[in-house]
Amino acid sequence: MAAVPALPALPVSLSGRFKGSFAYFTIKDRLPQILTRVIDTLHRHKNEFFEEHGEKGVEAEKRAISFLSKLRNELQTDKPVTPLEDELPDAALWNQYLDYQRNLPNGSGEPSWFQSPWLYVECYMYRRIHAALAQNPPIDNFDVFKEGKAQNFFESQEAIIALCTYFQELLKNIEDLDEKQLQEELFKLLQVSLWGNKCDLSFSAGEDSSQKSSPLQSLENMIPYILVNDMEKVWSLLVNAKKNRTERSNIRVDIILDNAGFELVSDLVLADFLLTSKLADEVYFHGKSIPWYVSDTTKHDFNWTIKQLGSANHMWMSRCGINWEGNLKKGVWVFHDHMFWTLPHDFSSMSEVAPDLYAELQKSNLLLFKGDLNYRKLTGDRKWEYSFPFHQALNKFHPAPLCSLRTLKSDTQVGLKPGQGEQIQASEPEWMVSGKYGIVQFDAGL
Hints:
Elements: H1 22-44, H2 46-53, H3 55-76, H4 91-102, H5 118-134, H6 146-155, H7 157-172, H8 179-196, H9 219-222, E1 226-229, H10 231-244, E2 252-256, H11 262-276, E3 282-287, H12 299-310, H13 315-330, E4 333-337, H14 350-353, H15 355-361, E5 366-370, H16 371-379, H17 390-393, E6 402-407, H18 420-427, E7 438-443
Parallel strand pairs: 1-7, 2-3, 2-5, 3-4, 5-6
Antiparallel strand pairs: 6-7
Helix pairs in contact: 1-3, 1-5, 2-3, 3-5, 7-11, 7-13, 8-11, 12-13
């Protein structure tokens, strides 16, 4: 029997142990800044906690702050990562993952902030922020990132109005569009959703990152910055599904969300277009079950955004919001959150760790993964060669055909043409972390 060729060994994980790397500077500078902002946010809400909960609220705030100050100190002094001590449903999985990190053959023994994989310690920080509040009732439901997400939404008003207006005008004659025109509109809205991903508050350590200008004006000029552009493949998948559908089969698209604010609105517009153009019959949205990575979308953010739009005093914004409420009521839009999205695991272990979620994704015709963190988890956050095939980097994660819409904000990228990455690197050493470049990268699955 012929020997099965062994898979090449996986490259090393991105990590703070590589001095001078983007991971190193993130852990050294950006993560402590984010913790400092969280502590400041709690300080600022002290009176509100007192008004709502009396002394108990203030006591809880003090305990949460001391918990977070301790966390910041552990991070900055590269202390070992400690097991979670809370009773939350995912704690056991986190602690098992810590054991797994401890026992890695090429590991450095005791996992610590700068020595362990960046993806792991960064996720761990956000989980510890969550624990600081969850373990301190009565402020256990306070989202320390909520204000920033709301602010991003309000500061992106002009862009949101421009997008809603464009979309409602498009709907007036969507029935009359021929196939070529439909394809053009899909490509436009995919690009708006792609570049909407620039609005990331964890990337700017919570500084203003709202979308100020009309998102549709500059699309043409941005095309050269899309390093992998598989929009044609997405189109042909959807069109073929539409042609082959029967009475009994629904075409389902899943969007694995990233940031709230303008990006979420761009995703909702894309989802509405898929329904009204009959390229899809139902859209499932996947969000985070706890506050995550500063600006990631939770169920509260999702519902709040649609409500804000519905009650806006701008005609086309409110039309969008009201229609989208309707989509949720009719069940053609569904919001799901699953604990797996806020675990440290990359997606190659989903079938093992969260078989229920994997089975859910297998029901989809197309999975759209938004943003940088999802890309890092798709590809294992490793030092890949730029031209390594995307399909292989997914490391057996193939629940359904999938496409990543991502602007580059971390130094991992696969599936480029030979020499493409090196060529950009020569003139722009920061190309992988500046958010200037993007990808629409498709994998057909098995």
